[in-house]
Write a structure and sequence with these properties.
By secondary structure, this protein is α/β, with parallel strands linked by helices. It folds into two domains: about 160 residues, NAD(P)-binding Rossmann-like Domain (Rossmann fold), CATH 3.40.50.720; about 70 residues, Orthogonal Bundle (ProC C-terminal domain-like fold), CATH 1.10.3730.10. It is built from twelve helices and eight strands. The chain has an eight-stranded mixed beta sheet with strand order 3-2-1-4-5-6-7-8, with helices on both faces. It is elongated and about 70 Å long. The C terminus is likely disordered. The structure holds 1,4-dihydronicotinamide adenine dinucleotide and (2S)-3,4-dihydro-2H-pyrrole-2-carboxylic acid (A1CAB). The site of (2S)-3,4-dihydro-2H-pyrrole-2-carboxylic acid has 4 residues, from α7. The site of 1,4-dihydronicotinamide adenine dinucleotide (NAI) has 30 residues, from α1 and α4. Belongs to the pyrroline-5-carboxylate reductase family. Its main location: cytoplasm. Catalyzes the reduction of 1-pyrroline-5-carboxylate (PCA) to L-proline. Keywords: Amino-acid biosynthesis, Cytoplasm, NADP, Oxidoreductase, Proline biosynthesis.
Amino acid sequence: MTERVAIIGGGKIGEALLAGLIGSGKPVKDLVVAERSAERSAELVADYGIRVTSDIADAVEGARVVVIAVKPDAVDGVLQALSVTDDDGELERITVTLVAGIPTSRYEAALPAGSPVVRVMPNTPMLVNEAMSAISPGRYASEEQVALTVRLMEAVGKVTVVPEKLMDAVTAISGSGPAYFFLMVEAMIDAGVALGLTRPLASELAVQTVKGAGVLLSESGLSPVELRAAVTSPAGTTAAALKEFERAGLRHAVNEATAACAEISAKTARRVEVEGSSQGVQVGAETASEQQ
Ligand SMILES: NC(=O)C1=CN([C@@H]2O[C@H](COP(=O)(O)OP(=O)(O)OC[C@H]3O[C@@H](n4cnc5c(N)ncnc54)[C@H](O)[C@@H]3O)[C@@H](O)[C@H]2O)C=CC1
Ligand SMILES: O=C(O)[C@@H]1CCC=N1
């Protein structure tokens, strides 16, 4: 896509999008980041040679797509800043939010009437152009604007369009999902060390195994059940391992973990509202949670 993109929030996910877009050939001159941390801004300039500003109004000038990539509790401050910027009507600026748990209706209420908003739940494999992004249009987003957002996110991975009511569940599976696999690999490396492997060898074995399993899952056309059966010989080594996973309640743990994730996502908007009203929304000020 050739449109100018402004990313507000150059943290982990803002950088992942930036890196993915540059990696997919988007010219640096068509990208700008609004980032309020001076230290973070310096890192982004050094690593990507892009323009970074602390001024949201400056960043969004001339941008067709404004991507919000701040923590949920910073969204209201960003919306306040955006609502007083000039939207050049001819540009039809689209607000694309990557923020977990905040519905499009909240953006629509804060931005000028009829502003198109598209909600996206990406994940960090965006850094290597292997993102899974789910997209939900807000009520004023046209088909063309949704298609533009799909193209934006397709530059960094796979995209699906879902109704917004599914976003909490999507967050529990793909948004937070990479962390579950990182935890699993971490545990496998420790287990390999406990079995006598060196840490570098255990790490090489575990990382390539999860990568190979992922490629098989996405490219073989076989289901996880079929692929697992193909590894599992009767009375063999894998069957012994899987029996222990089942005994320890792996499926139950996955159900409980994803339910907890979806619940937190669903409660985010309310939490931000309560915290915002008790502290007063501070535009441009760093909150405690962002410093963590
Ligand atoms: N980390 C992840 O795997 C995923 C994160 N998300 C969502 O992405 C959003 C960002 O998450 P992270 O990148 O992990 O957080 P982060 O804390 O790494 O990045 C947020 C950045 O926004 C900057 N910022 C805050 N307010 C600002 C303002 N008013 N103007 C300019 N910059 C401002 C902060 O200085 C910080 O660098 C969150 O809403 C999260 O729900 C969505 C999917 C995956
Ligand atoms: O942990 C979080 O809140 C964010 C949203 C999805 C992934 N990371």
